Amino acid sequence: MGEVSVVENKKVILKNYVDGIPTETDMEVKLGETIELKAPKGSSCFLVKNLYLSCDPYMRGRMRDFHGSYLPPFVPGQRIEGFGLARVIDSDDTNYKPGDIVSGIIGWEEYSLLRSSDNLQLRNIQLDDDIPLSYHLGLLGMAGFTAYAGFNEICCPKKGDSVFVSAACGAVGQLVGQLAKLHGCYVVGSAGSKQKVEILKNELGYDEAFNYKEEADLDTALKRYFPEGIDIYFDNVGGSMLDAALLNMKVRGRIALCGMVSLQSLSTSSQGIKNLYSAIYKRLRLEGFLQSDYLHIFPQFLENVKRYYKEGKIVYIEDISEGLDLAPAALVGLFSGKNIGKQVVRVAKE
Amino acid sequence: MGEVSVVENKKVILKNYVDGIPTETDMEVKLGETIELKAPKGSSCFLVKNLYLSCDPYMRGRMRDFHGSYLPPFVPGQRIEGFGLARVIDSDDTNYKPGDIVSGIIGWEEYSLLRSSDNLQLRNIQLDDDIPLSYHLGLLGMAGFTAYAGFNEICCPKKGDSVFVSAACGAVGQLVGQLAKLHGCYVVGSAGSKQKVEILKNELGYDEAFNYKEEADLDTALKRYFPEGIDIYFDNVGGSMLDAALLNMKVRGRIALCGMVSLQSLSTSSQGIKNLYSAIYKRLRLEGFLQSDYLHIFPQFLENVKRYYKEGKIVYIEDISEGLDLAPAALVGLFSGKNIGKQVVRVAKE
User: For the Enoyl reductase (ER) domain, which residue ranges apply (chains A, B) (predicted)?
Assistant: First the structure.
């Protein structure tokens, strides 16, 4: 390398640990720090320019002062991190060369210095003219893989099964429903706005969809769409929707526990799940999972889902916020359902 | 048959549907009705003298005015029924001959007229001098089979696993713990009295046991006995014990949902299960089951458990009430934990 340039490195930092639902003011977009655009010799690091950040519900867990989860909390005063896509600028790691596009856990900042030994789930991305780069955070990234692994490995789908998906228009849910349709299932989704319900029915191929905010009683809503019961519930929300689903499962139904957006925000004085007793006489199986346990099928996932997409059998909807300044709002928006489809932040043009 | 005798047939009837926990006054021991000790020609029925009745927690479900379960409710004003053992007196069914001992669903009365087409789960009992007849309601009956099927088919036990059993001294729990020990597991049980805790440790071979009523905090209690977490929780109670166990499961732990004595009695305003979110990041599997789904392994169960018993590898503890007059108290006692071991009512000498 010749002359090394030093540039400002804008960051999103966590101000304090968060109880309950995060707000924009829990984060700060911080200017003034600089970074050398260089990977130091002997460091085994590589320096990337960040292109896209993924906004994911699990990140709320890292904003709490809770150390018992599978990921450690963020550190107040320091930049937060999450899945993203970046272009390698300089490298002291022979696996990553300048110009490569990588996905993995990167900082919420303009440039990051990464080291592959830090368990960042780094992966070189094979560019494909037919597929938008940002899809590697959604359809072909953690969200899509969560849908694929959870539906195929946990739900045991069979042709003709009745499938219910909550948060069905979200980053994970939209693919679950489409995979279920490809399996020959009857699929109903719930979402939190009229616009999302229309997208589910008109763009994502769901057989039916409903706005849970307009339902006085979720049990009644599910009985309307599943008069004979539910074989598979892909649960992205927990809480009262899970409780209503438990009442409407068929004998030997399967529930994939993927996320509990509603539950995680509840205080300890809140209600819990009351209908778990249904699992006994209906012989239900409830199973939690993490996509990271299924990485052995990631190549099969990429191959299949890329093919489905290129053949026009599936679509994917993204909600892209432009620029790091909008990143806190984008992340916070997940918890009020502001986003439509997979929420991504574009940090820089490719 | 020659002369037919007509005798009085004492019965236990349900007076009214029950909300919450049943009491003795919800039932009545009724005298005055008579029965002919004869199976009418052409009826395909057979008449039995009832010997033993099984008191089981699931019977509470049949005392409620709730028609959505896998068994219909009892009918107020009529005699209740449950698993029992009886001797055939007269028969119009060639499968059942006078003198045979049968198990199945019989009336809570001195004599019952049964028909095998009524789905009474009838079975001829092979008498065995080394095994008390009443064990065919517990160790070798539905309770024992529930333990066997649930532990082997749902819990996936491996040598060295850490196993927790609630209601561990009960009809099901006492066998679960002993089976777990035979699998080479570390086994801890909870029960509701000091006496039961002593029995668990000194007679049933549990490695450790505790009285949940003496614990200020169940989470703390479980952390004491499982500092590295629980692989298998065989849940006989639901409620706050299930909630505490969820916090203490190891990654990929398994929870067999067998009964929820505590939950079933809760009103709709009560607390639910709050820690189900643990199932996601710990990838837990919770599965409900009914022994009746596993009848294909009943012969294997009988053979194995009889052999374990004869070899002195397992024991079984019964609590026998003498006479139909004490049957309501015996049934009600289940819900306060009065019984020690499998609760049985002896209606008549063999």
Answer: 61-345
Interface test with chain B among A60, A237, A251, A257, by most B beta carbons within 10 Å = A257
Of chain B, the percentage scoring pLDDT greater than 90 comes to 87
Residue B227 neighbours by CB under 8 Å, 6+ apart = none
Grade residue A270 by pLDDT with cuts at 50, 70 and 90. low
pLDDT given for residue B99 in this prediction: 97
pLDDT, tens only, A31-68:
999 999 999 999 999 999 999 999 998 899 899 998 77
Q: Is B288 an 8 Å CB contact of chain A?
A: yes
Fold category of A142-292 in CATH: Rossmann fold (3.40.50)
3-class SS of residue A28: strand
Going from N- to C-terminal start, the domains of chain B cover: 6-138+317-346, 146-292
Q: Which pLDDT value is given to residue B260?
A: 67
- From 1.10.10.10, 3.40.50.10490, 3.30.10.20, 3.40.50.720, which CATH number describes the B146-292 domain? 3.40.50.720
Residue with tokens 């392994």: B297
Task: Pick the residue from chain B with its C-alpha nearest to A237.
Answer: B277
Cβ contact (<8 Å) for B257 and A270? no
Average pLDDT over every residue of A316-324: 98
- The ipTM assigned to this model is 0.89
Angle at which helices B142-149 and B173-182 cross, to 10°: 40
- Interface size A-B, in CB pairs within 8 Å, comes to 104
CATH 3.90.180.10 fits A6-138+317-346, yes or no: yes
Taking a C-beta distance cutoff of 8 angstroms, is the pair B31, B8 a contact?
yes
Residue in the structure block whose two tokens are 């130091």: A40
